[in-house]
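Hi R.,

Here's the chain you asked about this morning:
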Amino acid sequence: EDDKDEKVTVSCEEVWNRGSYENRGEDNFSVAHIRIVYKDYHLQELILNLLYSTTNVFCYSIDKKASAIFKEQMYNLSQCFPNIHIASVEYQVDSAGHNMDRAFLSCMSLIRKIPHWQYAITMQNHDMPIKTNEEMLAILKVLNGSNSIDLVQPFSSRIPDDRDWSFKALQLFKNTSANDDRVLQITKGNVGSVHSRQFVEFLIDKINSTTFLSRFDKVIYGNDELYFPTLNADDNVGKFKMHEKILAVSSFASCYSHFYRHNTCIYGYKDLKVLKNDRHLFANKVLPSVDYTGIVCWAKYLAHRATIKSHEQSIPLKIYANMPAVRFNKKRTFWKKNLSKFNCATGN
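And the predicted structure, written out as tokens:
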């Protein structure tokens, strides 16, 4: 409950006593976790504890509508660790997706200046990890620089009726000489995604998002599902393609909790048996107000799993290594010259 959550004190000593933050991680491979948050401080601290390592990076973009107490809690938390950062700009984010991309980009701009991390993962307030940090690192390594951004055809009703979608009209590139008559192909995907460092640097260093995002402000619902997928998918832009979604599982064949929000299952303790065997990195979503027992039970399971030596070796990495985009990247020089021969369905 919100009133109980607001009573959670966030002195560094209390934070350190509530969790274990001794995981050193890996010196040569780490992840930047980006979360847009607005409530349920205790859940944010719990997830931080599950994913924490001294070499990972954590950036929180706080929704402008969050309570003053929640903001204070998050800022206090950031003072306890050198690798936790708060985006300097607060955006008014809503469930329809408005300002979601700007909030993510605010964190990306911040972490762009931090060296050493190889992948950035974008998440929302109630996304729950279903893999340990070690398991995530093992999976991300085999992606070989590929992104994991879900790509599907967008609903025509969600594309603004602007006639000119050329690079020139969008002023898409910061280098204006690249803004020619090529037309940007709009693609839809999910908010939660895995972004390679190369892609994040490309977005921050090369792309001017102003006109693109302003046009999609007109979209009533789902405008947050278009920016990153489009720039990932268009062959004329960055060619960072990956069609397989490994980040977040948003629904199962059966929702054992029988709770839904926007047609998305709210996972509870009855769903945990399915989460144990799922190949995704996160579950979207959990709500403390619906089933906090399930959240605590899962967190205890994941924390225990992380203590088992070499537990990440049980992950079937071939599933991820055989994804078409990963196989493409392994021989990218050849396939770029022979693109018509590559089978996107099989990776051959």
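The CA atoms of residues 216 and 223 lie 6 Å apart.

Let me know if you need anything else.
M.
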